[in-house]
Amino acid sequence: MSAIPLLLGDMHHSGDHEGAWRLPGSPIERLSDPSYYVEVARTLAGGGFDGIFFADFVGFDPLVKSVVRWPFEPTTLAAAVTAAVPDIGAVVTGSTVFATPEQLAATYRTLGAVSGGRAGWNIVTTGAPATARSFGDVAVPEHDERYRLAEGVVREVLDRWGADRPLLVQAGASEAGRQFAARFAEVVFIAAPTLEAARATRFDLRRRAADFGRDPDELRVLPGILTIIGPTASAADELRRRLNALVTEHAARHMLGMYGVELPGSGLDTPLREVVLDGNHQGIRSRAGVLDTIARGIGDAATWRDLIDRIAGSRGHLAVAGTGEHIATVMNRWLEAEACDGFVVKFAHSPAGMHDFVETVAPRLTGRGIGRGNGWPVRQRSAAQSFPAT
Ligand SMILES: Cc1cc2nc3c(=O)[nH]c(=O)nc-3n(C[C@H](O)[C@H](O)[C@H](O)COP(=O)(O)O)c2cc1C
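Above: query sequence and flavin mononucleotide SMILES. Below: predicted holo structure tokens.
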């Protein structure tokens, strides 16, 4: 493993866990206060993070009332945050379906300038019905066609950028998604609940990149990791139980719905047979398979609540509950096993869980050279060299 691992923090107001905003002491009152996100960025920069990831799911969804969303447009927030905290970069989601190449090129070029050259575009080929409704119910191309069209969008954007262009990031997991990521991504986000799954995906993506004439070392694979930190293993488990108890049925239904999975009408205590993807679902399609693998590992008497208890906050990503030392050991083991090139760190609850990470995990990762942007990829070649037209 050559490069210094890339460490990104998942920007979230009160934590990635669906129950976190209901924890006593959660910063829910500051949801609409931009200075809160600047404080988060300072904490992450101080903890050696290279950048922050700003997710984005455009559109109003009726179930949203049980799920807290920040009221900000993420590239504007990222610009404000990186202008205030020069030591940190920002990767922000942008849609190839609901934005034009001109808009995307200008937006990320600007973020690149404001962030001192540490900006990244998480390329999503949005298919969510809620988003289409927010754009006048426009017809959205089907899943694989969206990836084919996205290639043209990315090439047009690359044509408009100079040499110091933002990072290209992607999270395709389906066959079409992996091909797209292998052709264009410099960073690939993956959802892998086990080391073996991550390692297999990483080597598959590197092989595909080489098949496209790319240097596989120009592609970094970053799994998400949900961290639930406690002074002892049992304290961390107790925190997880408390968070799980705060997940409403609405929030569970909304989360599963994002992945094309329907929670039975009879609710969370319904016996769990299998996790089935709705064939008509046009949003994120590959996650249902990951959730089904987790469900099959629970046991015969499992209920949907048992599944939610396992995936709340992680949503199919690696989830680790324990002391800071234990979490650092797991992260170092994944890096040593070449299962990844860094991580997207999710904090079960914020800001307390983030402070715990910075104080008890990050110091045990510095041995790998992590700190102050060391992991942010430095480019050697031009776009034409990096992304050969094949
Ligand atoms: C870490 C991570 C972050 C993601 N962030 C977003 C996001 O902000 N907005 C979005 O619409 N999709 C997001 N996705 C979903 C991906 O863009 C993609 O739709 C998903 O991985 C499924 O890929 P597939 O369509 O190839 O199956 C994310 C996925 C991962 C793994």
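Residues 55-57, 93, 122, 124, 126, 171-174, 177, 189-191, 224, 284-286, 344 surround flavin mononucleotide (CB under 6 Å).
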